[in-house]
Amino acid sequence: MTGVPHAEARAIATLLGDATRLTILWALLDGKARTASELAWAANASAQNTSMHLRKLLNAGLLHVIEQGRHRYFTLASPRVAMAVESFAALGAMSTEAREVPSSTPDTMRFARTCYDHLAGALAIDLLGGLTRQGLLAETEREFSLTPAGERWCVQQGIDAGALRRRRRAFAPKCLDWSERKPHMAGSLGAALLEHLLAHKYVERTREHRVLRLTPAGAQALRPLL
């Protein structure tokens, strides 16, 4: 497990000696956050058994918990953990078959919707990915930030980042997307970005509650980022 300290590697190897724990971690390799009940389904384990394994993985520092409202979502604690899990699974010592967690979210709402006053859904996640790949956004564990190139991009789009920072709210905090289970961008910048997309008719509201539609103009304009 190159890059993982020996003590951490030994702890991981000991914990992954259990097939259920390995399957739980394997189910999180796609980067999505999942609830305990979803991980129990993925590992084909009881809720009580899964809870016990999650406590062990949390205590060992292999998992991170995101608390949002009444819900607790689990993710891998770091890329190093993901690398260790993949390395261990590559040994072929045991099966890593995880059942796919079913989704009941309608496709239209999963693709694009509002989350309070900012963009959510797969479109939001893809857009953030494009902004990050092009060096316009950077991120930490809790928030996004504009790079110098991102500041210039905002000026080009008519978004006054300086004025947004002076508002009495967080600038660009992460908000866990409940359908995609990855963070999208909230705060004053997230709200301004949605306003920009609506004003330019890149997305439009539909009759479905909170659901947005990507317009042909939006698909064309946002193609470099998606």
TrEMBL record:
Question: Domain HTH arsR-type, which positions?
Answer: 1-96
Q: Name one GO molecular function term.
A: DNA binding
CDD domains given in the database record = HTH_ARSR (cd00090)
The record's annotation in Gene3D superfamilies points to:
Winged helix-like DNA-binding domain superfamily/Winged helix DNA-binding domain
Instruction: Name any Gene Ontology BP term.
Output: response to cadmium ion
Query: What InterPro entries does its record include?
Result: ArsR-like_HTH, HTH_ArsR_DNA-bd_dom, HTH_Metal-responsive_Reg, WH-like_DNA-bd_sf, WH_DNA-bd_sf
As given in the record, the signal peptide range reads: none
Lineage, top-rank taxon, reads Bacteria
What is the name listed in the Swiss-Prot or TrEMBL entry for this protein?
Answer: HTH arsR-type domain-containing protein
Organism, as annotated: Pandoraea thiooxydans
Q: What are the leading ranks of the lineage? A: Bacteria, Pseudomonadati, Pseudomonadota, Betaproteobacteria, Burkholderiales
